[in-house]
Every structure is written in C-alpha cells, then in structure tokens.
Amino acid sequence: MKSLHIIYASTSGHTEYVVSVIADYIKQHSPDTEVEVQRCEQATAEDLARGDVLLFGSGSWNTGGVEGQLNPEMYVYCKKTCKDTDLAGKPAGIIALGDDRYYYTARSGEHIRNFIQSHGGTVFGQTLTIVNDPYGQEERIESWAKKFLEHLQDL
Ligand SMILES: Cc1cc2nc3c(=O)[nH]c(=O)nc-3n(C[C@H](O)[C@H](O)[C@H](O)COP(=O)(O)O)c2cc1C
C-alpha cells in the first residue's frame, strides 16, 4: 500500500479545490492508496517525513512585493518552518496555480521545485500547472491525477 501526503496553501480556495479533486480521484480509483491532506499553516517540518510521496500545492503571489512568488503561507512554511529540513531523497510532486493577468504566471511551481531540490528531495512526476480559475478544469486535473497515481503505484 502506497501513501501520499499533500501539503498546500490556499487563500481564495483555488488550490484547495484542485487538491480535493486529486485526492477524490485517487481515493476513488485506488482505495488502497492512503491520501492525507494538510494545510501548510498546520504542518510542521516533521510532516515532511510522512507519506511515500509528498505533493506540494501553492498559488503564485506577490509575497514581499515582487510578483511570481509563493503564496505567503507556503513561503513561511518553506523558508522558515522547514528551512533546515533534509528531505533525504524523498519524492515530491508539484501543483502550481496562477493567473495569466500576471507576467510571472504560475511561477510558484519553480519555487517549490527549488525548495525540493535544495533540501535533498527528488521531484516526482510532471508539475500540474493551473492557470486561472480551476473550476471547469477538472478533466485536466483528473488526467494529471491518473498519471501521478500510475507513477506512485510504480514506486
Ligand atoms: C495579491 C495577489 C498576487 C498574485 N500574484 C500572482 C503572480 O505573481 N502570478 C500569478 O500567476 N498569479 C498571481 N496571483 C493569482 C493567484 O495565484 C491565483 O488566483 C491562484 O489561483 C490563487 O490560488 P489560491 O486561492 O489557492 O490561493 C495573485 C493573486 C493575488 C490575490
């Protein structure tokens, strides 16, 4: 049995919605896979040790006054809460949201990738990038979840 631990930030609920579509898809298509979902405000550095695979989700934000950054809560989690954490080779996937009104569209994915790689983790699968409202994009999200699940089962 495989397990997935999802850690996300969400201010207006978009990332939370995307995460819920993925979690529901996996629970429905692979009841044996354990899926745990956690907001980053409630997560500690020790939570990074949970799950066979981690999955991070964050929208893009103008944290610190510059566009194309992490959501402020994910910024605190990655840069402060977990600044000294070693992922020790752990596989971790990426969900990045953004809006095409911004020049640095969905750039949060690059920051998450940088976090994973600079903390000794391994990027797992393809990044799921959702531009603009996720509502109506369920088919794309589920098709990504299908591939992610296959990859997880192959571990
Ligand atoms: C203050 C603010 C700054 C934002 N900055 C960016 C940005 O730099 N790049 C981008 O692609 N989207 C940006 N967005 C759009 C959000 O990333 C997008 O709406 C996302 O879906 C929000 O997800 P959430 O509701 O889960 O937090 C910004 C939104 C707000 C409100």
What's this, in brief?
The chain is an alpha/beta fold and 155 residues long. It has helices at 14-29, 72-81, 108-118, 138-153; strands at residues 3-8, 34-39, 53-61, 69-70, 91-98, 122-123, 128-131. The protein has one domain (3-153): Flavodoxin domain (Rossmann fold).
CATH architecture: 3-Layer(aba) Sandwich
- Ligand identities: flavin mononucleotide
Main pleated sheet? 7 strands, mixed
**Mean pLDDT over the residues:** 97
In CATH, what is the homologous superfamily?
Flavodoxin domain
**Portion of residues in helices?**
25-40%
Say what oligomer this is: single chain
What is the rounded distance between the termini?
Answer: 11 Å
The number of E-state strands comes to 7
Q: Structural class, judged by helices and strands?
A: alpha/beta
Annotated CATH topology? Rossmann fold
How much of the residues is beta strand, in percent? 15-25%
Characterize the overall form.
Answer: globular
How would you sum up this structure, described in words?
With 155 residues, the protein is α/β, with parallel strands linked by helices. It has a single domain (3-153), classed as Rossmann fold. Helices cover 34% and strands 24% of the residues. It has four helices and seven strands. The protein has helices at residues 14-29, 72-81, 108-118, 138-153; strands at residues 3-8, 34-39, 53-61, 69-70, 91-98, 122-123, 128-131. Strands 1, 2, 3, 4, 5, 6 and 7 form a seven-stranded mixed β-sheet that branches. A hairpin with a 7-residue loop joins strand 3 (53-61) and strand 4. The longest helix has 16 residues, at 14-29. It is globular, with a radius of gyration of 14 Å. The model has no long low-confidence stretch (mean pLDDT 97). It binds flavin mononucleotide. Flavin mononucleotide binds next to helix 1, strand 3 and strand 5.
